[in-house]
Q: What sequence folds into this?
């Protein structure tokens, strides 16, 4: 006799999963690259003392999260300008330095003249750093904008800050930049620069000749890799705890 | 003015050059790593063994990731020139070192090479190999003064406990 074992067991409906978008911001951890100590034989005490000073400065001035390719507006204290402040808007080309000497270079073309200013993140003269446009580029280093057509480096000085939501990922702009005719300041087509953001309009032979300088063994050289994941986590926890106080 | 002094300074450089191009340096170390994985204990000049040790340990770290990892497979494919050793690396060596977090090799210096160059040699072995150990730990003999005094003390205590 085919019979069910009594009435079917009551299965309650699955509980609704509430995805709180504001909670997800805590999942995206960003640690500014100047906190990560470089590989070397220096005493870690130096880095921890520097980190304390950096956190002290960050409590006074809020330094936003930014990458290479963002468009920033920086106001610095200038004794010779009327209003005593000077504002510069530009695209971040490069972030360099570790610790308190961390710098970033902003580039803009003003009245047909390319201008690059290297600011120090922890300079006490800097009064405000404002992110106008969020956008990551394909490379870590946009120095090739010097040899690109000037339209790619011009940004409106009175640009309004673009509003962005906290929890979204930073968008990557896959723009391929067109270059001025050669000669360039550096041979950007060579593989050691590893640039993905240029639209090379060079003939095929030149591209093949540039590949002669490629070093295919470099990716297998294991001792050159610097794994920073654990260091980053430790420092991120430390920095966050200090900033919350 | 001597402009070539800058070329002779090597402050903070950790990699030895081994008198050749960077490609030939990696090829040399690659052969040594392959030999180590095959024989598990090899003798070679001290400097080469010292350079190769870091690469061998990192290779085992990559192997611990498992052979489904694409990067680990590419690394093993480059570093082991004899392809049957890739199987040995992932199936024998990686499980052997799974419980340990690091330091999979032991390097000891040997008397200089017997040939004309008298090179400083070293032996490197993977821990847990099937050969007899390189260093036999010698326990203290019973005839030393301290051991004799301790033995006398132990016997006194046993006599006092019995009485």
A:
């Amino acid at each position: 006799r085919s019979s069910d074992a009594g009435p079917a067991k009551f299965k309650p409906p699955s509980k609704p999963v509430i995805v709180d978008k504001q909670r997800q911001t805590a999942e995206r951890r960003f640690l500014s690259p100047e906190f990560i100590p470089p590989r070397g034989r220096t005493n870690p005490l130096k880095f921890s003392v520097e980190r304390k000073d950096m956190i002290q400065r960050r409590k006074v001035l809020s330094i936003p999260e930014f990458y290479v390719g963002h468009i920033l507006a920086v106001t610095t204290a200038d004794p010779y300008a009327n209003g005593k402040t000077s504002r510069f808007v530009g695209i971040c080309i490069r972030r360099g330095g570790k610790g308190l000497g961390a710098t970033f270079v902003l580039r803009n073309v003003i009245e047909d003249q390319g201008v690059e200013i290297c600011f120090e993140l922890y300079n006490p003269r800097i009064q405000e750093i404002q992110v106008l446009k969020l956008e990551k580029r394909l490379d870590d280093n946009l120095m090739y904008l010097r040899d690109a057509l000037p339209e790619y480096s011009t940004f409106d000085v009175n640009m309004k800050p673009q509003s962005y939501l906290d929890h979204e990922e930073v968008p990557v702009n896959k723009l391929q930049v067109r270059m001025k005719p050669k000669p360039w300041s550096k041979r950007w087509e060579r593989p050691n620069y590893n640039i993905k953001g240029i639209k090379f309009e060079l003939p095929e032979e030149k591209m093949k000749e540039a590949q002669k300088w490629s070093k295919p063994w470099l990716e297998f050289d294991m001792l050159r890799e610097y794994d920073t994941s654990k260091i980053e986590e430790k420092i991120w926890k430390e920095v966050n705890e200090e900033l919350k106080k | 003015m001597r402009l070539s002094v800058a070329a002779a300074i090597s402050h903070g450089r950790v990699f030895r050059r081994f008198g050749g191009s960077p490609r030939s340096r990696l090829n040399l170390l690659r052969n040594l790593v392959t030999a180590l994985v095959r024989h598990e204990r090899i003798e070679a000049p001290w400097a080469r063994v010292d350079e190769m040790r870091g690469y061998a340990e990192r290779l085992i770290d990559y192997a611990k990731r498992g052979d489904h990892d694409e990067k680990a497979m590419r690394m093993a494919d480059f570093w082991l020139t004899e392809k049957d050793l890739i199987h040995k690396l992932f199936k024998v060596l990686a499980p052997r070192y799974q419980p340990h977090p690091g330091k999979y090799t032991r390097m000891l210096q040997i008397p200089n090479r017997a040939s004309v160059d008298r090179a400083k040699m070293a032996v490197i072995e993977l821990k847990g190999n099937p050969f007899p150990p390189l260093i036999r730990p010698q326990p203290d003999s019973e005839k030393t003064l301290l051991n004799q005094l301790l033995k006398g003390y132990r016997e006194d205590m046993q006599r006092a406990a019995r009485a």
About this structure: The first helix of chain B runs from residue 5 to 8. The helical segments of chain B are 5-8, 22-39, 46-64, 70-79, 84-96, 145-162. Chain B touches chain A at residues 12, 14-15, 22-23, 26, 54-55, 58-59, 62, 74-75, 78-79 (CB under 8 Å).
